[in-house]
Structure formats: structure tokens, C-alpha cells
Sequence to fold (260 residues):
Amino acid sequence: MKLSAPKPKVPGLLKGLGVTLKTMLTPAVTRQYPHVKPDLAPRTRGVIALMEENCTVCMLCARECPDWCIYIESHKERVPPATEGGRERTRNQLDRFAIDFALCMYCGICIEVCPFDALFWSPEFEYSTYTIGELIHEKERLREWMDTVPPPPPLEEGAEQPPELGAALERANKERQAALAAQRQATEQAARGGPAGPARGAVREDEEIEVEAEVDQDVYQALLAEGKSERVARARAKAAYVRKEKARIRAERAAAGGGA
Fold:
């Protein structure tokens, strides 16, 4: 039986230098945050957003929360009957909805159990603070996070449309038909020599004006000073810039028309 020769032992110092040399030649994978934003998944659990209009104060999210970090306060108020001759109804009016993100463990149970789609995940994660008390987000701030919630993914082929989506589409279709009827009536009135509707003219002119969205630095800095996140501030600053540019272009057109 022939024994193989033992492998020569590499000194520990040379082995360590080899590891160092290999690390030096390997490209770095460190992200230079905050200069380079991370590429997050669309459904990243960053912060919880609240659609206040959908909340019925059923308290289901607060009861199911394992950390007890959701605070809800409400009162009852009377609303007129839905049909003539009916009885007055009472409903809960939301006064306070707050989430303490210092206690939240981002399990998402509150979002899963909400039967009225009032809570959503937002991938926004840049809301660190210097004090722990600022991590309690009241309903006004939770509502602002809705601007950062990505749209839902498209339905799979052959899937049934949700009933609430069908009702919303039907309501939107009725509103669109009413707007078209009002526009048609205004056109007929203008054709007969009557005054044209100013709102319709303004809307139509707005649709014709094309403005490339840019960030209004004044609005952007003001929103940052108010404590808005960079993403929300940038989106609102762009919207403010577009509105301002369209108003300026309309004024220039009106002045040119008046001068002619």
C-alpha cells in the first residue's frame, strides 16, 4: 500500500495575506446609502398607511394587534335616514387613529384582518426620528403614507373582478356620463350664443397644456422642513410645479388674446 505525500503546510501569515488580497480584488457590494437608494421589492413592509375614508372603527385591527400598538378613539353621531320616512342611523366617527412604530413588529396582522381595506403596506422606510415619541404616527400622517402605496398588481387572467371594484367603476362611469352631459349642454348653449362654461373651458385648456414635471425647490424644501419624507416631498413639489406652470401659461395666453 502506497501512502500519498502530505500536503505542504502554508504559514498562517501567508494564508491571511491571501484572504486580504482576494478581498481587495473583489468588487464591493456595499450600497452607499443614503446617496444610493436601495432597490426594494414593491411589497416591502416599510410603514403602514391608513385610508381614513374606509375605516369604520370596527376596532378589529386594534384587538388583533399582538403588540397593542394601535390606538383608536371615536364617537357616535347621528346621520339622516337613507330613505324618506326611515329612521335616523348612528355611525362611528373616527377621532384618532395612531400607530406606535416603536412597538410595532411589522407582522401585518392589522392589514390582513381589516375587512374594509383601510390599511396598506407602503415601502417607505425613511421615517427615523431623534425621539421615540415621534414614532407614534397619527391618522394625518398615516394618511400621507397612502401617497407612497404602490398600485395593486393586475388580476390574473380569468380571475373575477372584486365586487367593490365593480361598484366603484359603475359609480365612476355615472360621474363620467354626467360630466359628458354637462359638457354637451354647455357646447349647445355656446352654439346658441350663450356664455360658455368657464370650468369646462379651463379643464379643456388644462388638458391641452403639456408641462414636463420638475421639482419646485421652494415647495420641496418647505415640505422637508415640515417633516415630510423625501419621496412625498418630491412628488408634491412636482405637482405644485405643474400647477404653477399651467397657471402661468394660461395667464400668458389670456394676455396674448386680450392684446390681440
In short: Residues 48 and 211 are 33 Å apart (CA to CA).
